[in-house]
Design goal:
Distance between the termini of chain B: 38 Å
Number of helices of chain B: 0
Distance between the termini of chain A: 36 Å
Shape of chain A: globular
Order of helices and strands of chain A: EEEEEEEEEEE
Structural class of chain B: mainly beta
Oligomer: heterodimer
Radius of gyration of chain A: 13 Å
Number of strands of chain A: 11
Helix content of chain B: under 10%
Largest sheet of chain B: 6 strands, mixed
Largest sheet of chain A: 7 strands, mixed
Amino acid sequence: NAGVTQTPKFQVLKTGQSMTLQCAQDMNHNSMYWYRQDPGMGLRLIYYSASEGTTDKGEVPNGYNVSRLNKREFSLRLESAAPSQTSVYFCASSLQLSNEQFFGPGTRLTVL
Amino acid sequence: DQQVKQNSPSLSVQEGRISILNCDYTNSMFDYFLWYKKYPAEGPTFLISISSIKDKNEDGRFTVFLNKSAKHLSLHIVPSQPGDSAVYFCAASGVRDDKIIFGKGTRLHILP
């Protein structure tokens, strides 16, 4: 039982490059989330998916897109990376929206 | 507009003493509250929760108190241990279909 897995663990991009962060959960959870964590800013929600087939914007969605590929997988895409997107990205999942969330280990992204 | 506020960015406590982390919320519809713990380079992990029908929930060294009239909750750690040094996030959710809202976190330092 791996819980929530994220790939890659680290990534360095140049401004304007694109990339996709992958997330998968094996807990049969309905809801999945993408957060970013920056110093002094706590966890800020980028996008979430309440259930398979639905996605919604969170607090800071600009510059990102998401895909809920199936019940297990929820990916985050940066189409044209900017230095302001340098951050640690966490994926999380929960049984339902209001239940406790389980987090992945994070992806540390640097945009030069 | 922050719905979940942790007004102390950091807190230092002597090993063996009590650590008290505070959290305030503004939304009277919140009815489920959680605390998460986060170590550097790891994802947050769920610590303890409390429903609004209770005013106290205990799990080993960790106790969460809820004061609904003051819209305030606190996490008590007794006795504090070196492994408790981490960032603690308070979180809350409302009616069943609402997602969890996180505070910005408090960094706890346990001093030897």
